[in-house]
């Protein structure tokens, strides 16, 4: 790796020797991938195999949400596999084709004149014309006793992923938005009964969904009710509840609880100038996964889309990496479609 540095002044940049006092240590690549979950590891695999000089920057351990997942039954090629095992083989395969995997947290991404991007981390900076953001996100937590302890043992945040593990079981769903009601309806395919527990009387969910749920013979509602704790032995077997109107406490016997009170995408590091939807997810071109910023792509759970699964993350990342390679070729031929006002805006802060 050549020892490079960069100086940014008056909207221009140039490389300088690392020893220069005004410089920041910088490594240069073709593609910088931010995040090492299924999307990031797939991007790393494709970039390495396509002979791009690529780096994957992951703040924690590679694997992303796979590391919070027990058993996976919906990833093609495996009848079932543990999340940790899938993370390990994906990481090995990503590294096998030459992409550098670096453990460091990204602080910000800045646009430079000419189409280059500067990716700032706590351990130095990275330069690349193409950046693929695969920073994922996290389900919002209830924050009650038992939630962490029983994660994967009756506490779930994904009906499509885990519903099939709960055949003929009474389930609870926490939440009052579209996601909670939609997922409760989905869970009726498996569960003997689904109780939707909501802290208010009013629901944010669309009336049409609520009507469907209210008419469903397997669904019942508990409103004005909060979950004080999630309890059980080996697995969840009941919830301790409190009615906010009457202050009455009760116990609900359930075999599992699905929590849908929101999902927080990790979009803060490159936020203001990337178009996003109401919930904060990056909007991307469906053909290329490119955001509104030329050369910045997004894949997986950070992206605005219908569903968030391992398979969709992997698919997005495949498209994003192939599109990034093509974009770089164009860019090398001298085609730079970066709006100057974006460069101006981002030189003084995160994109
Ligand atoms: C409990 C649970 C169970 C699930 N079960 C299933 C299942 O059975 N089947 C299924 O298909 N899907 C399942 N999902 C969904 C699936 O895990 C996600 O859709 C998938 O992991 C998304 O992949 P991703 O790479 O986009 O994001 P993530 O997996 O979230 O990975 C993002 C990565 O980016 C890193 N990162 C974030 N910010 C930075 C930064 N600033 N700098 C560097 N790195 C950063 C994070 O540390 C993380 O490793 C489950 C999700 C959860 C929460």
How is the secondary structure organized here?
Blueprint: E1 4-9, E2 12-17, E3 24-28, E4 31-34, H1 38-49, E5 54-58, E6 71-72, E7 81-82, H2 83-96, E8 100-103, E9 106-111, E10 117-121, E11 124-128, E12 130-133, E13 137-139, E14 155-156, H3 159-162, E15 170-174, H4 178-187, E16 193-197, H5 207-215, E17 219-222, E18 225-232, E19 236-243, E20 249-253, E21 256-259, E22 263-265, E23 296-298, H6 310-332, H7 340-347
Parallel strand pairs: 3-11, 4-5, 4-12, 5-8, 12-23, 14-21, 15-16, 15-21, 16-17
Antiparallel strand pairs: 1-2, 1-3, 6-7, 9-10, 10-11, 13-22, 18-19, 19-20
Helix pairs in contact: 1-2, 1-6, 4-5
Bound molecules: flavin-adenine dinucleotide.
Written description of the protein model:
This protein has 351 residues and is an alpha/beta fold. The protein has two domains: 220 residues, FAD/NAD(P)-binding domain (3-Layer(bba) Sandwich), CATH 3.50.50; 105 residues, FAD/NAD(P)-binding domain (3-Layer(bba) Sandwich), CATH 3.50.50. Helix content is 23%, strand content 30%. Strands 2-1-3-11-10-9 form a six-stranded mixed β-sheet. A five-stranded parallel β-sheet has the order 8-5-4-12-23, covered by helices on one side. A five-stranded parallel β-sheet has the order 14-21-15-16-17. Helix 1 packs parallel to helix 2 and helix 4 runs parallel beside helix 5. The chain is elongated. The structure holds flavin-adenine dinucleotide.
């Amino acid at each position: 790796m050549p020892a490079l540095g960069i100086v940014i002044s008056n909207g221009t940049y140039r490389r300088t020797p690392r020893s220069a006092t005004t410089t920041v240590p910088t490594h240069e690549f073709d593609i910088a991938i931010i995040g090492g979950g299924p999307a990031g590891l797939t991007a790393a695999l494709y970039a390495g195999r396509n002979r791009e000089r690529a780096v994957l920057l992951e703040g924690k351990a590679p694997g992303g949400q796979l590391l919070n997942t027990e058993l996976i039954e919906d990833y093609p090629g495996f009848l079932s596999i543990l999340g940790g095992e899938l993370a390990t083989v994906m990481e090995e395969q990503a590294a096998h084709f030459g992409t550098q995997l670096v453990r460091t947290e990204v602080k910000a991404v800045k646009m430079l004149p000419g189409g280059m991007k500067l990716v700032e981390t706590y351990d130095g900076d990275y330069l690349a014309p193409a950046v693929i953001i695969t920073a994922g996100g996290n389900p919002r937590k209830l924050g009650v006793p038992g939630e962490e302890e029983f994660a994967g043992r009756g506490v779930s945040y994904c009906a499509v992923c885990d519903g099939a593990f709960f055949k003929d079981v009474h389930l609870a769903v926490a939440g009052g938005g579209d996601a909670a009601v939609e997922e409760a309806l989905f869970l009726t395919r498996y569960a003997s009964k689904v109780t939707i527990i909501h802290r208010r009387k009013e629901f944010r969910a669309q009336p049409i969904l609520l009507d469907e749920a209210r008419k469903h013979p397997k669904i019942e509602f508990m409103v004005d009710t909060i979950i004080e704790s999630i309890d059980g032995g080996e697995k969840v077997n009941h919830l301790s509840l409190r009615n906010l109107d009457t202050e009455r406490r009760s116990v609900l016997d359930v075999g599992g609880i699905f929590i849908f009170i929101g999902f927080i995408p990790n979009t803060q590091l490159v936020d203001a100038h990337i178009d996003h939807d109401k919930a904060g997810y990056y909007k991307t071109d469906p053909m290329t996964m490119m955001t509104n910023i030329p050369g910045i792509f997004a894949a997986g759970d950070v992206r605005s889309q219908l569903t968030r699964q391992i398979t969709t993350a992997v698919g997005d990342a495949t498209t994003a990496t192939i599109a990034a390679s093509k974009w770089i070729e164009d860019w090398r031929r001298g085609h730079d479609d970066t709006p100057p006002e974006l460069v101006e805006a981002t030189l003084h802060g995160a994109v």
